[in-house]
Specification:
By secondary structure, the protein is of the alpha/beta class. Helix content is about 35%, strand content about 25%. The chain contains eight helices and eight strands; from the N terminus they run αβαβαβαβαβααββαβ. An eight-stranded mixed beta sheet has the order 3-2-1-4-5-8-6-7, sandwiched between helices. α5 links the parallel β4 (about 75-85) and β5. The longest helix has 11 residues, at about 90-100. The radius of gyration is 16 Å and the shape is globular.
Length: about 200
């Protein structure tokens, strides 16, 4: 399993009700179902990913995460997971408010745009950075948001979200191996992972 997903899985208690948005091929969901007996649901926009999930016996929905989440009742899940998807969301504050309505806690992870490789490429080459975590060129990237770890902390404070946990990780070029970064995470981390919740207001 990917290193960032291992971190997320370690935060999930046994038997939890899980909604994974942008669940991909269901790697995290199948782990949580099999190892932690979690009640798992996933949503993904890709038909191929949905097919992979179905072959694993997962309960998944094909659709737009922004629309599909609106139908769930308040506190329907213990954890809602938005892994490496926030940078592709048009209205992140509105979506996170909805996720904090339908889930007791929300896990958010994203590539850290302030990693030193991104900084150097932009500074020395004057070009939009491409890394193993941000592999697309500016003209074909699904990433419409440029987010840093510091940005998300500031955003959470201004939006009234409580940050319950946060971890900065570096996976370099190996997604399945990595390390937790405690010193200079805004420069050295390739991903930020946050657990937020607790302050939802109906707005």
């Amino acid at each position: 399993m990917r290193f960032d997903l291992e971190i997320i899985a370690s935060w999930i208690p046994p038997g939890a009700r899980i909604l994974d948005l942008g669940c991909g091929t269901g790697e995290l969901l199948s782990f949580l179902r099999d190892k932690k007996e979690a009640a798992c649901t996933g949503i993904d926009f890709s038909e191929n990913n949905i097919q992979h999930c179905i072959t694993k016996g997962l309960s998944v929905i094909h659709g737009d995460i922004n629309e599909e989440v609106m139908d769930y009742a308040d506190q329907a899940f213990d954890y809602v997971i938005l892994s490496q998807t926030l940078q592709q969301v048009y209205e992140p504050e509105a979506l996170l408010n909805t996720l904090l309505r339908i889930g007791k806690n929300v896990v958010v992870s994203f590539p850290n745009f302030s990693h030193w490789r991104c900084r150097l490429q932009l500074f020395w080459q004057g070009e939009a950075p491409t890394t193993s975590q941000l592999p697309y060129s500016w003209y074909n990237s699904p990433n419409i948001r440029v987010i840093t770890i510091k940005d998300f902390r500031t955003f959470a404070l201004s939006s009234g979200f409580s940050i319950l946990k946060e971890v900065a990780i570096n996976t370099d070029n190996q997604e399945r191996k990595g390390s937790i970064i405690k010193i200079l995470p805004t420069i050295r981390a390739t991903y930020g992972i946050f657990l937020i919740g607790g302050t939802f207001t109906n707005r």
